[in-house]
Give the backbone structure.
Amino acid sequence: MEKKEVLKKLSPSTNEFQGIDIESIQKSFVNHLEYSLAKDEYSATELDCYKALALTVRDRLIERWIETQQAYYKHNAKRIYYLSMEYLIGRTLGNSLINLDLYNVVNTAIAELGYDLKELRELECDAGLGNGGLGRLAACFMDSMATLEFPAYGYGIMYEYGIFAQQIIDGYQIEKPDNWLRYGNVWKISRPEYLYPVNFYGKVKQYYDSDNHLKTEWVETRQVMAMANDIPIPGYKNNTVNNMRLWSAKSTRDFQFEYFNDGDYEKAVKEKAQSETISKVLYPNDNVHLGKELRLKQEYFFVSATLQDIIRRYKKTVKNGFADFPDKVAIQLNDTHPALAIAELMRILVDIEDISWEKAWEITVNTCAYTNHTILSEALEKWPVYLLEHLLPRHLQIIYEINYRFLQRISKKYSNDIDKIRRMSIIEEGKDKKVRMAHLAIIGSHSVNGVAELHTEILKTRIFQDFYEEWPDKFNNKTNGITQRRWLKLSNPGLSDLISSKIGNGWVTDLYVLKQIIPFTGNPDFQESWQKIKLENKKRLAEYIKINNKIEVNCNSLFDIHIKRIHEYKRQILNALHVITLYNFIKENPRADIVPRTIIFAGKAAPGYYMAKLIIKLINSIADVVNNDPDIGDKLKVVFLENYSVSLAQIIIPAADLSEQISTAGHEASGTGNMKFALNGALTIGTLDGANIEILEEVGKENIFIFGMNASEVDELRHHGYNPWDFYHKNPQLKKVIDMINNGYFSKTRVFLFKPVIESLLDLGDTYMLLADYKSYIDCQQEVSKTYKNKKKWVKMSILNVAHTGKFSTDRTISEYAKDIWNAKPVHITIPEKSDEK
Ligand code: 9L8
């Protein structure tokens, strides 16, 4: 028999998959403990037990993973490639157990062996390969694509260091490296044999070949190798296991021994380390473009390796060239971070595959699609021409050529409207010329989408208006979502079970099914169970706060929660102004019957973002004063939870009564935390921004607390000249709050500590218009408190919020991408039948 056939005969997938009964699970577990980890019952640590369990689950993933990949190959299905610099995955064990439908079996199996599944799950490190919403969205998309059985692949970078761990010391943020791979990672399957060379630097050589065709070569480059690491992504109860491939940088020097022999050994080692820095660390900036050379290297490194892999896979099934490429491949660019893919695909098609420019361009545009996630100007990627010229000289030429052809068209059409040409050019002219990556992405894609209705409108009418006029059909909206498998079923088992006990499990794969709980809204038993679950979740969070912050919080108080990256546009300061307002009210009205609140913040600040870090210190300083004031007692507590992460979010969100979504209208592209809170029964206090607007449309205006200016009012006020001093002088309550911060009430030993905060609000024009929205916010918070007093009303509103979150599943989002942008069809995976003998 041939080797391959012997393997196939013995392979578990040819015969039978690993058992999913209690006994088989226990057997796998002890086998892994002994053979994979070389431990026995005496030497095994808790972490070993977690690993043995994770390996047990991984076995069951891998067999389905192999089956899935073979099925995609056999069907020659159109593949979806999601390209993202960030994936904020969090933990995998619990999620895999849910999606494989093994949670209860494993729970029992492991309990019989004397272990606690919950405790073991806690030992897993978060995979923090992202900053915030953009990275978490990519992770939710992976879950939904697998659940909807799409032949999808996530591509990204295997950062050795994920988002830093945040410590709060004396109220300040301190960053600690996140060495998440230190103890190995069970879910990461390294494939040292899947290696691609990635070129940098060098120069461009052009010549005429024997047929007198102009040929272009990129020569004398320096090479880095990209090594594949795969993470299995299971769909929910459907045998699909998709692949996420994250590249790590490896030196080519490992593979060129002669360099060691005849070269400078020390230099060789140094250069090796240098090339491997490419995948060392995730840049910890959310919504800011810094323009560092290493970041550009990361972007090209990941794009180049990914395209080589995509083309290798394409050529395996399609033998007659690239005409079918767009029918077999869809590439989705998660923001402009992978937008070099457009230039790289052109380079491969034209320079290497010898395809004409026109044909190559058609293929590229029909393959690529671009999602924009932000309109903040500081977040838009613009790379200096000199940097590209140095690092990627051929790509710069290609970008110039794309631009030249595009501008020719525009000039003809608009009879040399210079202003328009200047605005639309990929190149921003000026002292140092820059490449506008968003323009490259729009011109090189057949689809451009925003991530919420308002955001897409702003793209069409403001930042990309010229392009929208040119190609109205390219632009479309895909409102973000979240996966209910992680954000309800896994993180809030109490609420999940209550819901399922009334309406079944259908909501796990069709979130609109939640509407079926509407008839129970007024049911007193149901309401009571609902409140009880919320209280249990609050107790769990209170316990966490007690351990981590040494603060006792009142579980009957309103849990008012503001968790997200710290950014001025997200307006954590506005919330802080409300905290001080409440504090003043309690001091001035000690006998007033007020609704006690626990106001909880969490979030990381970019290490170089001075104001964001000062905001963290401000919140902690306010917390110190408020929490230690005997006049306040448990009427008001302020908590800043350190090291916000996916896993921490899974504890915080189910415990929330109130969700703070208070960005200046027009600034938060979508938000996805807002959806997670609503799904867990928190009510939203928010502005008419991003997806808040759509949450309002779904839950109804009587079930949400909306305040402040809308996006056009913000624009108008800005346009007519906004003066924050007017609001300061007009409102004594506001004046008092600001003066307290300014006069060192919260920084007694360093009176001027928060001066920069006050300056930004008063002297520097209050860019995010906190003062203009202050009154409306305070009034709205009063309405919140009034409503909270009416327990019946609140619980009804809470139930109705959950009932109306159907739209906000990434299952809906992904179905829309598949239909409108990718033209992709699902592939159903079947696994070998279980034989009867067992
Ligand atoms: N702020 C948006 C948020 O409203 C939205 O819900 C989420 C998912 O669509 O994306 C968030 C977002 N993140 C970024 C972002 C921009 C960067 C970056 C790193 C470097 C440069 C720009 C990381 C993240 N934009 N929008």
